[in-house]
Amino acid sequence: MSAIKAAVVGATGYSGIELLRLLNQHPNIEVTACYSKRFNGQSIDKQYDHFIGQEAIVLEEFIPSQVPDEIEVLFLAVPHAQSHTYMDQIRDDLMVIDLSADFRLNEAKTFEQVYQSPHQSASLLSSVPYGLPECHRDAIKAATKVANPGCYATSIILGAYPLAQAGHLSSPFVVNAQSGISGAGRSEKTFSLFCERHDRVTAYQMGQHRHQAEIDQELGGHCLLVPHVVPMSRGILAQIPVPLTQTLSMAVLVELYHSQYDQEPFVHVKENWKTPSTSAVTGSNMCMIGINQVSDGMALISVAIDNLLKGAAGQAVQNMNLMMGWDETLGLPTQGRYL
Length: 339
What we know:
five-stranded parallel beta sheet, alpha/beta, single chain, 25% helix, seven-stranded mixed beta sheet
């Protein structure tokens, strides 16, 4: 088959460059356009040395109404409250995977409360599925536009989803999660400076993180997220002490997770105090889940993902594969690099 032509908006951010790297290795994709307002007119290899040999791809400023006809798949790796302003200008036949938060929430009112911005494409919210394949695979396959989940949300939803589906998840529940510094994005800010982040762990936006809204939506409960930024470049480790609606044996708990995920190509379940580590998933699209029963009526679930892959770019490619009717593992790494 001839390669499908794709474009990336926000190609110079951390999620954008990982997306570009994955797409360059995808057997069915040819990237023919990259967009960046800040670096408009520069070739991609001038910004990132590891894209050597791709001097033909010159970064352009994105104009939604002028996406070339040859482009069939468009990735929007942009900050929140941008992509919803594009939709009435983008061609109807264009397949769109939106990595921003603009279409993750089902209600425009909730989006406006969380992101402090009126939604300009509210009529589309009901037709854009939440792009977590392990939960919404059939809807993603049938869609032309998909909302890629947030990184914290991906780890926490996958960690608690089997319990929520079985009616065993009590609410509210508290999650402690640690993220690498890349989760804050590539923009220049004091928070991300070496001296501000080196040799320290910092909690932030406790109980107020924006991803809580999509977690609550997908799990049907209320999550109090306590996020931390830690001095590593990438990765998320989430600890979910889950209050159960009824006491479950360890055997039942393990079976619940294995029955949910054993056929999933990007989820691996560990049990009996085998807790996951970010080193096991870094550089891969995998989600690793550890299951432990701590006491009667309480289970401790640990989840590790790469925030830039399963939490962003990798999941976007997984969604594209499903939308195109391809094997969803195509072009995606399943083994972490450990170091």
